[in-house]
């Protein structure tokens, strides 16, 4: 029997993979008895930031990572596919529908026993600790004591949600960037004067107090919009408000700046402001974001929030399977290991579980090489040569390069993806042969 602590994306994936391989699992989850400030539901795998699992094309590294997991029968990717909402070339989900489906599958699995309540100490192995960046103070302290080393920390922010019916479509239009896929985003344009007025108020808006917050501690992938605004007048126009690939049908021209809204539920009744993670005070969010012309009368159903994210100095502590270098039967998974993003968290839970299965069965874990996205991510997190370790999204730069040179980036990335998937197919056969389980 293996204990899994935490039923977020990484913990749910780890529990599922263990159970699918015939390993009894005790899954510990502190909800509903206790919740972090960022959690709102009692369900598993709650998405507290965006509802997007990002790009779904093989030319995109996270698209490759999804496909690798998909072929191994990933719970998280399978549930995401089943609750998908349209978002151009991205895999976005109905937030509640996704979490409900993960919860239903976990609770109905015969090899998984869910135990509700907060865990305040690391149990003896075999165990996978996947309590995420929002780990409770008590367990966070226990992990610090377990390793005898300090944590690093950064802050993460969630974007506001607005109702679709409150968006002024006279000042907005449907389109995906470069017209890729179906027109799934609501685009809210601003001219130069409107943008500059918005920027001025955004920079000076009053922020909610977050103890210990400094701009340098904010991870670039989830930076508050007001922090970006302070970095220069065009930072937002080259970031979340970039107008490239979008044409306002009223003018036939590319706008000066564009705020995109992405569908957040299957009913298309709620949308999130893409890239608008923030820790402004709630009244300030209403005041400043309502300066966007199409959102002048917007109804905010959730304001953006800022919360602490905590992660380990993993290169010094963990091996390529996310296990404690001193004790291979104690593993960690999810964003606390320094992987950044929903899919990456699920991938860490997957690999930790596959390796743990082998260990408890007295076998050597299947090695995922640097040619695969799953393997490259684990090898990055455990790379002892890294001096200044920071959270990392999957990207092609950490995957082993091709032996031959390919000039065009898209063709090179596709070649990397095809090479990886060929390796993945072989690993599936090796792993299935060892466990005699059907992971389809």
Which terms would index this structure?
single chain, about 450 residues, FAD/NAD(P)-binding domain, Elongation Factor Tu (Ef-tu), domain 3, 2 domains, 5-stranded parallel beta sheet, 16 strands, about 15% strand, disordered C terminus
Could you walk me through the main structural features you see in this protein, from its secondary elements to its overall organization?
With 440 residues, the protein is α/β, with parallel strands linked by helices. The chain has two domains: 2-151 and 312-435, FAD/NAD(P)-binding domain (3-Layer(bba) Sandwich); 158-306, Elongation Factor Tu (Ef-tu), domain 3 (Beta Barrel), CATH 2.40.30.260. The chain has twelve helices and 16 strands. The chain has helices spanning 9-20, 61-71, 75-82, 95-108, 137-147, 192-204, 225-229, 282-289, 314-317, 342-360, 373-381, 409-435; strands at 2-5, 25-29, 52-55, 84-85, 90-93, 112-116, 127-129, 152-158, 161-163, 172-174, 185-190, 257-263, 270-273, 300-302, 305-311, 330-332. The strands form four sheets. It has a six-stranded antiparallel β-sheet. A five-stranded parallel β-sheet has the order 6-2-1-7-16, covered by helices on one side. Strand 12 (257-263) and strand 13 (270-273) form a beta hairpin. Helix 2 runs parallel beside helix 10 and helix 10 crosses helix 11. The model is unreliable at 211-215 and 435-440 (pLDDT under 50).
In short:
This protein has twelve helices and 16 strands. It is of the alpha/beta class and 440 residues long. It folds into two domains: 2-151 and 312-435, FAD/NAD(P)-binding domain (3-Layer(bba) Sandwich), CATH 3.50.50.60; 158-306, Elongation Factor Tu (Ef-tu), domain 3.
């Amino acid at each position: 029997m293996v204990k899994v602590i935490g039923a977020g994306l990484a913990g749910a994936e780890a529990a599922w993979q263990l159970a699918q391989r015939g390993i009894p699992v005790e899954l510990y989850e502190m909800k509903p008895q206790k919740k972090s400030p960022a959690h709102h539901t009692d369900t598993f795998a709650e998405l507290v930031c965006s509802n997007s699992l990002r790009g779904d094309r093989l030319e995109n590294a996270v698209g490759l990572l999804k496909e690798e997991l998909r072929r191994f029968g990933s719970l998280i990717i399978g549930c995401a596919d089943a609750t998908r909402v349209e978002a151009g070339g991205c895999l976005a989900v109905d937030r509640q529908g996704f979490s409900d489906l993960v919860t239903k599958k976990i609770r109905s699995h015969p090899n998984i026993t869910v135990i509700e309540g907060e865990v305040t100490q690391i149990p003896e192995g075999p165990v996978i600790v996947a309590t995420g960046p929002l780990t409770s103070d008590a367990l966070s302290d226990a992990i610090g004591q377990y390793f005898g080393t300090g944590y690093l920390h950064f802050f993460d922010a969630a974007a506001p949600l607005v109702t679709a019916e409150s968006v002024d479509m006279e000042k907005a239009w449907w389109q995906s960037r470069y017209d890729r896929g179906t027109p799934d985003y609501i685009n809210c344009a601003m001219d130069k004067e409107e943008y500059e007025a918005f920027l001025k108020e955004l920079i000076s808006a009053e922020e909610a107090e977050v103890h210990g917050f400094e701009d340098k501690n904010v991870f670039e992938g989830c930076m508050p919009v007001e922090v970006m605004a302070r970095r220069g007048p065009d930072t937002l126009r080259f970031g979340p408000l970039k107008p490239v690939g979008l044409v306002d049908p009223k003018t036939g021209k590319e706008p000066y700046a564009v705020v995109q809204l992405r569908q957040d539920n299957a009913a298309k009744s709620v949308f999130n402001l893409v890239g608008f993670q923030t820790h402004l005070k709630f009244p300030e969010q209403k005041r400043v974001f309502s300066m966007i012309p199409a959102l002048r009368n917007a109804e905010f159903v959730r304001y953006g929030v800022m919360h602490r994210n905590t992660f380990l100095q993993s290169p010094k502590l963990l091996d390529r399977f996310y296990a404690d270098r001193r004790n291979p039967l104690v593993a960690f998974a999810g964003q606390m290991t320094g992987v950044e993003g929903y899919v990456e968290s699920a991938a860490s839970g997957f690999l930790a579980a596959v390796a743990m299965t082998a260990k408890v069965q007295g076998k050597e874990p299947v090695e995922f090489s640097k040619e695969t996205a799953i393997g490259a991510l684990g090898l990055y997190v455990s790379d002892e040569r890294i001096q200044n370790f920071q959270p990392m999204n999957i990207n092609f730069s950490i995957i082993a390069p091709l032996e031959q040179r390919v000039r065009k980036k898209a063709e090179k990335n596709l070649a990397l993806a095809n090479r990886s998937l060929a390796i993945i197919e072989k690993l599936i056969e090796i792993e299935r042969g060892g466990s005699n389980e059907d992971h389809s």
